[in-house]
Amino acid sequence: MGAEQGSGVWKSGRGKGRVTPKGRQLDDQAWADIEELLAGMPLRRDLLIEYLHLIQDRFGHLSAAHLRALSEKMRLGMVEIYEVATFYAHFDVVKEGETPPPALTIRVCDSLSCELAGAQELKAALENGLDPAEVRVLRAPCMGRCDTAPVLELGHAHIDHATLEKVDAAILGGHTHAHIPDYETFEAYRAAGGYVMLEDLRQNGDFETVQQTLLDSGLRGLGGAGFPSGRKWGFVRDAAGPRYLAVNGDEGEPGTFKDRYYLERTPHLFLEGMLVAAWAVEAQTCFIYMRDEYPAVLEILAREITALENAGIVPVGYIELRRGAGAYICGEESAMIESIEGKRGIPRHRPPFVAQVGIFNRPTLVNNIETLHWVTRILREGGEILSGVERNGRKGLRSYSVSGRVKNPGVHLLPAGSTIMDVIEAAGGMLDGHSFKAYQPGGPSSGLLPASMNDIPLDFDTLQPHGTFIGSAAVVVLSDKDSAKQAALNMLRFFEDESCGQCTPCRVGCEKAVKLMEADHWDQPLLDDLCHAMVDASICGLGQAAPNPIRSAMKYFPEEI
User: How confident is the model at residue 4 (pLDDT cuts 50, 70, 90)?
Assistant: First the structure.
């Protein structure tokens, strides 16, 4: 009777029970958005970063509601998605009650080449001249366009030799999307004999013969490590399958832009070389990890991979194009593999090495873009195109990314034994009114060398006796109008921003180094102790190489510090 009158515990009880689960509630609209964005896509944990890109591209930020809906869709904890989203610089996470960023973001490159070209003044002028409610202006690390410094990114469009007038015109015209340059398409490459070599290898090829051809040519990894390519292929092939291939396209070392140069012109020379490498190690899948700062390259590769699939050269899905999200550390091969798996780009402890335990804990061959570009040329034209070139006792060719105080910055293909004077000459000489003072031989990781050390061949193994290395051959030329002290500080600020923070020597060391270097006079004994700790105890190459600009500045430019 009481129940019929609306009484009783089930009808009128007012206890502390909840009508919803604890935690963030699932928003219906956000759920509908995620369902629409992911429609037709496979639901895989390793694609988390790709899903985050979809949300960022559509809405301009990652709202807490959308992250909650994504966690529900993927059956992952919010903390797991949040920690990945907040690791990468190109994701804007917006919590409840926070204001989303403006619809338009301008990223101004502040790498050494752009700073020499006036990037700081340009950024300040943009901040003063634009409405912050409409346009967000950020500093950003190297965008791989050092030959056209200063550079900025307006949305997804790059403006070379940037000025206020160019920015205003681009905003008025709505030019915020990447410009796709003219390049050799699949049809043109195929008509010129492309992929005939690959098809012949698939039908009649012998791995040992291909491996020996590469070894005889002298081809080494051109991402910076310089390990003989043929030997690396052999290590991976000897491991038990299934095996994978990962292409490191995260060309984030400031001053480096050679990979972008080749991909924006002849992408299929690289793609055919990649498929040869995949054939050689019998890779189950090829992953191309490309930095987000190269939107034009990402579009080119997406188009041409589709063309390969349509032509039946690869099965659909055999090549997976993965988009980075703004993290220099992902250029380290194990951090890149973590990112491919949809995680934070945290370097792994080694051993085991990725050749044995890589993607999904399987043996993985990791190669650089330019390395695979040369694989195609060597197998077509013969190893003599490298081994037949000699200068200063060194054999081979190097693609030098040249920027700074030279007349014709760009990618210059020169003999591997070239000196800095040869590089400057190839780049048209010094700018008028500038005298050669110093140079960065291989990115900020290599530090600075004085102009007096101008007779060293810029190649693998030749610079180590001088406390530096060639790395990715990113050459930045400084003049008498530049400060070596300020250049070294620019490099350390980059490392401070880009340290993943996993290990204390790198995370704290880079921060403390910057503070010490900002002083009018450096505390050299303390900086030297700090450098030793970072080199000895850092997990990966970032922390181990970050002290090089400090040490080279103290050694070669003592009068400035």
Answer: low
